[in-house]
Amino acid sequence: MPQPHHGSAAKVAFTGLPQLVAERLLGALEMSVAALDLPVPELVEALPQGPRGTSSAIFTVSRGNSEMAGELSKLDAIVPGATDMVAYVVATLATHSLIAPLLVATGADEAAIAASHGALHLALAVLAATIVLRSLWPQVTVEAIVGAALGVTARFLQEAPMPAAYAEARLARRRAEYLMPRHGRTSATVAEHVFTLAEGPLETAPDFSDNGLVAVLPHGIAIRSGQESGSVSVNLAVVERPPTQNLSIWDEVVEVSWHAPNGGASFAGHGDAAQITPPWPGDYRVRVAVRGRDADREDYEVTVWRAPAARPVVHKHSDLVGYVLRGEPVPPVAVVPDEIYHWVENSGLSQAATITFVTGKSSSEVLRDFGADESEPTPMSEFFDRDYQNADPWVCVLDVPGGAVAVEFDSWEGSKSPVLRALSSPDTTAASMFWNVKALCQFSLARNGDVLTQFELGLAETTSAEALELLADLDVKGRHRNAVGLLAATRFTGVSLSAKDLARIEAVGIGYPVLPLLPELYVEQRLDDGSRALPGHGPLGADTDRLAALPDADLRDLAWWAADFAAAHSELSEHPAVTASLAGRALTPEAEALARRSQLHEHTQHQWTWMTLHAATNPDPLGAAIGTLGKARNAVAGHAADLLDQARARVGR
After folding, report:
1. Which of 27, 188, 221, 311 is the most exposed place for a label (fewest CB within 10 A)?
2. pLDDT tens for residues 216-236?
3. % of the chain at pLDDT higher than 70
4. Is residue 217 within a helix (H) or strand (E), and if so which, with residue range?
5. Residue among 202, 204, 220, 349 nearest 276 (CA)
6. Are residues 338 and 483 in contact, defined by beta-carbon separation less than 8 angstroms?
7. How many other CB atoms are there within 10 angstroms of residue 456's CB atom?
8. Kind of pairing between the strands at 429-435 and 441-447
9. What's the CA gap between 103 and 213, in Å, rounded?
10. For residues 415 and 15, what is the distance between their CA atoms, to the nearest angstrom?
11. Residue 271: pLDDT above 90?
12. Is the CB of residue 170 less than 8 Å from the CB of residue 53?
């Protein structure tokens, strides 16, 4: 049956080929095909005959198509079904007892075998097309023959199995490229509460009554999800030996053994090569950890290593799903204080955020202390839709009983000391909790303009008695670490944020761009004898330690000399704000505003120069000298060596 719009199946398959590849194959084959003088086999003689005389037909060729495409369109119009006959002959011959052995591909590797497989079938198709098409239409062109052969081959190879040698070569390549340890984040498809890490499909319903989480299959493992369908997030690790497991952040942790018949198990629905187990047969051990099966957000960690078969080990069981599957009585649910903030884990703040609580201030005052302008309300969608390289900070604020709350969805200004000092001044309190997708966090407390403590919950210690008291009854190393920090911040300030409060912020949909405050300037720590507490490094290398012996006045001179050097080698050398700041050895209001603005995405051209001037204002003379030299070295680029040589000369070397 003619197909005037799309053409035959071979024509459709041909148009899907890269045109340059098709043209090169035509160039390689056209002379040989033209010279072919082949007898007509019985198989072809039995086919219906096409027109022998002069025929006419209407056909169209799109401008820009290859000559072969045009000839194929002509062939489809004049001899409808001709390429289907070629496809029939190819399919019949490919399984013929005399022909099939000739089509077995060979090669040294995966690519060579694939190339041989394609070349052999293309050769068969060229011969079949030459014989069939010439018998149906003696005027058929070489371009039509080669085009038909390419289209028939492309379609045939879509369904034809690859030779056994190809699978062997592919496995050899995967084994050669497989490196350990390997870690990757992926997702697994859940069906009827189950997903698998296996070498094949799930054939029978697994039994989870033994441990409530993992069932061993003949070719992998099945894992019981709390959700009926969809997908779950999984972190897969393949290691050489079992790692230490932090049980506190998981609800259930189970370890089992399974025998891999071939190796290379993958998660159902997601079999990309980066997320498979070792591609070798043998005995393996797998540890599965899960949290959130009783809630709406599940997270899994699957760790695999090679080990002899051993009995299952249940390291931890605590969720409701597990108790029910094991047929065990469900213990009373212990209510923890930080549960009031567990809702954050299922909100738009779950991956990264900074939440800052301020006592006794309005949202307008909080915006001012952040460096934001209340007169610049901006739709949150504009911030979310920015170029990924634009990380300029922005903040949402809400008045709540007792004060105000600032919410940052993807910045961390509220965790910075200058902001916390401003927020807690005068005579009030501020606290913030920051976390990000890399599991980093920072808990901060400030009062009366002083930052009392800043540390990472669960990983770093604090000497603040007040912070220790706030956290005394909370699990800072558990899975709800962010909620713990938020509760402690609420305890400190008396200000809280609820899920309804966040919904109000999101419903209003307004944020405010922040002009960042200038970075913190730190005191260079010294020992009792005046030498540096952390020697041996700095902009002058080991010579940096010599700066500690200089008088404060000399250190101040050195800092402002370096700032002047940086300005002189920039386009800002005659800027009024720069010259005034250098003359007064302090940032003018205009210079401070420009230095702050230089931290924004579209204004970073002279950022190092402005930061050099800022570093020179450090109240600590030694910190000012070291910091300014470091910033100036980056600001002057190609003149850095001259800067450092002159600096060494100034300190007596």
Report:
1. 311
2. 999 999 999 999 999 999 999
3. 94
4. strand 214-217
5. 220
6. yes
7. 18
8. antiparallel
9. 48
10. 58
11. no
12. no
